[in-house]
Write a structure and sequence with these properties.
Radius of gyration: 22 Å
Number of strands: 5
Helix content: 40-55%
Strand order of the largest sheet: 3-4-2-1-5
CATH architecture of the largest domain: 2-Layer Sandwich
Oligomer: single chain
Shape: elongated
Strand content: 15-25%
Structural class: alpha+beta
Largest sheet: 5 strands, mixed
Distance between the termini: 62 Å
CATH class of the largest domain: Alpha Beta
Protein backbone atom coordinates (compact mmCIF):
# COMPACT_ATOMS: atom_id res chain seq x y z
CA UNK A 1 0.00 0.00 0.00
CA UNK A 2 1.29 3.44 -0.85
CA UNK A 3 1.69 6.28 1.63
CA UNK A 4 3.39 9.64 1.58
CA UNK A 5 3.96 12.82 3.52
CA UNK A 6 1.80 15.65 2.23
CA UNK A 7 3.11 18.21 4.71
CA UNK A 8 5.65 18.19 7.50
CA UNK A 9 7.04 20.81 9.83
CA UNK A 10 8.54 19.99 13.20
CA UNK A 11 5.65 19.06 15.47
CA UNK A 12 3.02 18.66 12.73
CA UNK A 13 2.78 15.92 10.14
CA UNK A 14 0.13 15.12 7.57
CA UNK A 15 0.33 11.69 5.99
CA UNK A 16 -1.69 10.35 3.12
CA UNK A 17 -2.27 6.70 3.96
CA UNK A 18 -4.35 5.27 1.15
CA UNK A 19 -4.94 2.10 3.15
CA UNK A 20 -7.41 3.94 5.43
CA UNK A 21 -9.38 5.62 2.65
CA UNK A 22 -13.06 4.69 2.97
CA UNK A 23 -12.17 2.35 5.84
CA UNK A 24 -13.13 4.03 9.13
CA UNK A 25 -12.10 1.05 11.28
CA UNK A 26 -8.56 1.15 9.89
CA UNK A 27 -8.46 4.91 10.32
CA UNK A 28 -9.39 4.49 13.99
CA UNK A 29 -6.67 1.85 14.37
CA UNK A 30 -4.09 4.24 12.92
CA UNK A 31 -5.25 6.96 15.32
CA UNK A 32 -4.88 4.57 18.26
CA UNK A 33 -1.44 3.35 17.18
CA UNK A 34 -0.05 6.86 16.88
CA UNK A 35 -2.01 8.36 19.75
CA UNK A 36 -0.50 5.87 22.19
CA UNK A 37 3.03 7.16 21.57
CA UNK A 38 4.62 9.36 24.22
CA UNK A 39 5.08 12.75 22.62
CA UNK A 40 2.03 12.61 20.31
CA UNK A 41 -0.40 15.32 21.35
CA UNK A 42 -3.11 14.81 18.74
CA UNK A 43 -4.02 12.44 15.90
CA UNK A 44 -6.92 12.94 13.52
CA UNK A 45 -7.64 10.37 10.83
CA UNK A 46 -9.94 11.16 7.92
CA UNK A 47 -11.15 8.00 6.25
CA UNK A 48 -12.86 9.97 3.47
CA UNK A 49 -9.54 11.38 2.25
CA UNK A 50 -7.14 8.76 3.62
CA UNK A 51 -5.31 11.41 5.60
CA UNK A 52 -3.70 11.42 9.04
CA UNK A 53 -2.88 14.67 10.85
CA UNK A 54 -0.41 14.14 13.68
CA UNK A 55 0.71 16.80 16.13
CA UNK A 56 3.68 15.80 18.24
CA UNK A 57 6.61 16.96 20.36
CA UNK A 58 9.49 17.25 17.88
CA UNK A 59 11.96 16.97 20.74
CA UNK A 60 10.69 13.48 21.56
CA UNK A 61 9.74 12.00 18.19
CA UNK A 62 11.05 12.02 14.65
CA UNK A 63 9.29 11.58 11.34
CA UNK A 64 10.80 8.08 11.06
CA UNK A 65 9.57 7.05 14.52
CA UNK A 66 6.02 8.17 13.70
CA UNK A 67 6.01 6.15 10.50
CA UNK A 68 7.53 3.16 12.26
CA UNK A 69 4.75 3.24 14.85
CA UNK A 70 2.21 2.38 12.14
CA UNK A 71 3.85 -0.95 11.26
CA UNK A 72 2.94 -2.92 14.43
CA UNK A 73 -0.67 -1.80 13.92
CA UNK A 74 -0.72 -3.66 10.60
CA UNK A 75 0.09 -0.81 8.25
CA UNK A 76 2.88 -1.99 6.00
CA UNK A 77 2.79 1.03 3.75
CA UNK A 78 5.74 1.95 1.58
CA UNK A 79 6.41 5.64 2.02
CA UNK A 80 7.24 7.60 -1.09
CA UNK A 81 8.29 11.18 -0.41
CA UNK A 82 10.48 12.35 -3.23
CA UNK A 83 9.01 14.82 -4.05
CA UNK A 84 6.08 15.39 -1.69
CA UNK A 85 2.74 14.43 -3.14
CA UNK A 86 1.32 17.94 -2.83
CA UNK A 87 4.05 19.23 -5.11
CA UNK A 88 2.77 17.05 -7.98
CA UNK A 89 -0.71 18.53 -7.76
CA UNK A 90 0.57 22.10 -7.43
CA UNK A 91 3.01 21.70 -10.30
CA UNK A 92 0.44 20.08 -12.60
CA UNK A 93 -2.11 22.80 -11.83
CA UNK A 94 0.42 25.58 -12.45
CA UNK A 95 1.45 24.02 -15.76
CA UNK A 96 -2.19 23.75 -16.88
CA UNK A 97 -2.89 27.39 -15.94
CA UNK A 98 0.15 28.58 -17.90
CA UNK A 99 -0.86 26.42 -20.88
CA UNK A 100 -4.41 27.86 -20.95
CA UNK A 101 -3.10 31.40 -20.49
CA UNK A 102 -0.65 31.05 -23.39
CA UNK A 103 -3.31 29.53 -25.66
CA UNK A 104 -5.61 32.49 -24.98
CA UNK A 105 -2.85 35.03 -25.64
CA UNK A 106 -1.83 33.35 -28.89
CA UNK A 107 -5.45 33.06 -30.01
CA UNK A 108 -6.20 36.73 -29.29
CA UNK A 109 -2.96 37.85 -30.90
CA UNK A 110 -3.80 35.90 -34.07
CA UNK A 111 -7.25 37.54 -34.21
CA UNK A 112 -5.70 41.01 -33.80
CA UNK A 113 -3.09 40.36 -36.50
CA UNK A 114 -5.69 39.06 -38.96
CA UNK A 115 -7.97 42.00 -38.16
CA UNK A 116 -5.14 44.45 -38.74
CA UNK A 117 -4.22 42.89 -42.09
CA UNK A 118 -7.80 42.99 -43.38
Amino acid sequence: MRAYTTHHIAGRLRLKLLEIKNRPQLAARAETALGSLDGVTSVKANSLTGSLLIQYDAGMLSLASLRHALQPAGFAAAFDDAPEAGQFASSALAEKIVEIFLEKIISRSAVLIVGTLL
